[in-house]
C-alpha cells in the first residue's frame, strides 16, 4: 500500500506510506513501532478507511475495503479505533453512558441499549457500570477515561481494534492496567489489535508480532521476542538501545528522518546509519549498496524479515 499527499507550492508529493505489506491474523496483536513522522499513524488511518490509499488496497476477511458510505459504515462496526488522548476523544458535554452508546445509535442497534452499554463498561473494567452512567469525563481519572474510550469501541463487538498510542498520555501506574485489559480482551473475546506506538517496551509487553517502520516502510518484522532480543536492522537496534534495561551505551542517531517528499536513494536509513558510519558496512562489502541500491519490500507474513543490506550480508 502507498499513501501520498500533495506537496505544497509545487513541491514533490510526500510519500507518507511508501510500500507496506502487513497482515493481522485473527486473535493476534501486532505492534507497529517507529519514530514520530515515520508514517505509522497514516497507515493506521488507512486501515480504518479514513485515508484512501494512493495505490494498493486494504482487505478485511479476504474482501477489499469499499469506500462508499454504506461499505465504510459496515466496516467500522467490525473495526474500531482507540485514540491516544482520551480527553480529546470524549465530548465533555456527554455523559459516560452517551459516549459509549453513541456507536450503537449510529449503527441502529436493535437490542437493549442499556444492557449493551453496561456490558461494555464492565468488560473495560469499570464496575459496577451503572455507577459511571451519569458521570462526565472531567469527573474521571485519566485511566478511567481511557477505559470509557475502550468501552465505546467494544460496545459494537468489533473483530479488530486499531489503538494509536493507547497509553502514551497515561501515568506509568495506569499504563500496565490498560495493557493488561487489552490482553484480557484478546483472551476473552478473540480480538485482534494493531497497536501503534513509539515505545518498544510497550510492544514487548503486549504484542505477538512487531513491525518496525521507518520513513514510510517496514524495515524489520517478526515475532516480538525474536525481533527485540536479536534485532538485525540498525534502526531497530538504535530504538532498543535507549530502553533502561538495554545493555551497552545508547545509540544516538544523527540528524532527523529525511523529508518524505525527498526519500534518499538506496537504503532510506543510510544517512543516519551507525553501521555505515562506523565502517562495518564497508568491511562487509555492502557500503555502496547501502547508498545506492533500494531494498525489496518485506511481505506481510509472520516470519522474521529485515530490509538491510548489511544484516543480510552478515546473516549469509
From TrEMBL:
Belongs to the ABC transporter superfamily. GO terms for biological process: peptide transport; transmembrane transport. Pfam families: ABC_tran, oligo_HPY. One of its GO terms (molecular function) is ATP binding. The lineage of its organism: Bacteria, Bacillati, Actinomycetota, Actinomycetes, Kitasatosporales. Keywords: ATP-binding, Nucleotide-binding, Transport. Residues 1-240 form the ABC transporter domain. Coiled coil: none annotated. This is ABC transporter ATP-binding protein. SMART domains: AAA (SM00382). It comes from the Bacteria.
Amino acid at each position: 500500500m502507498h499513501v501520498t499527499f500533495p506537496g505544497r507550492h509545487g513541491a514533490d508529493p510526500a510519500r507518507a506510506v511508501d510500500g507496506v505489506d502487513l497482515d493481522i491474523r485473527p486473535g493476534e496483536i501486532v505492534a507497529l513501532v517507529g519514530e514520530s513522522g515515520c508514517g505509522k499513524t497514516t497507515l493506521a488511518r488507512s486501515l480504518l478507511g479514513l485515508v484512501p490509499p494512493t495505490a494498493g488496497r486494504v482487505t478485511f476477511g479476504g474482501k477489499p475495503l469499499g469506500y462508499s458510505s454504506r461499505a465504510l459504515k459496515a466496516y467500522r462496526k467490525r473495526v474500531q479505533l482507540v485514540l491516544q488522548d482520551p480527553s480529546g476523544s470524549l465530548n465533555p458535554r456527554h455523559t459516560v453512558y452517551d459516549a459509549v452508546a453513541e456507536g450503537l445509535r449510529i449503527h441502529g442497534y436493535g437490542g437493549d441499549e442499556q444492557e449493551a452499554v453496561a456490558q461494555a463498561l464492565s468488560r473495560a473494567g469499570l464496575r459496577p457500570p451503572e455507577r459511571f452512567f451519569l458521570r462526565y469525563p472531567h469527573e474521571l481519572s485519566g485511566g478511567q477515561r481511557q477505559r470509557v474510550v475502550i468501552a465505546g469501541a467494544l460496545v459494537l463487538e468489533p473483530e479488530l481494534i486499531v489503538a494509536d498510542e493507547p497509553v502514551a498520555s497515561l501515568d506509568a501506574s495506569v499504563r500496565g492496567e490498560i495493557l493488561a485489559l487489552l490482553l484480557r480482551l484478546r483472551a476473552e473475546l478473540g480480538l485482534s489489535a494493531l497497536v501503534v506506538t513509539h515505545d518498544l517496551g510497550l510492544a514487548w509487553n503486549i504484542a505477538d508480532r512487531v513491525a518496525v517502520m521507518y520513513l514510510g516502510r517496514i524495515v524489520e518484522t517478526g515475532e516480538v521476542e525474536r525481533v527485540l532480543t536479536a534485532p538485525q536492522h540498525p534502526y531497530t537496534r538504535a530504538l532498543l538501545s535507549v530502553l533502561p534495561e538495554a545493555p551497552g551505551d545508547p545509540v544516538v542517531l544523527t540528524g532527523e528522518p529525511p523529508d518524505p517528499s525527498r526519500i534518499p536513494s538506496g537504503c532510506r536509513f543510510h544517512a543516519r546509519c551507525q553501521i555505515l558510519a562506523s565502517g562495518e558496512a564497508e568491511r562487509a562489502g555492502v557500503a555502496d549498496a547501502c547508498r545506492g541500491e533500494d531494498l525489496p519490500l518485506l511481505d506481510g507474513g509472520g516470519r522474521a524479515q529485515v530490509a538491510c543490506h548489511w544484516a543480510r550480508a552478515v546473516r549469509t
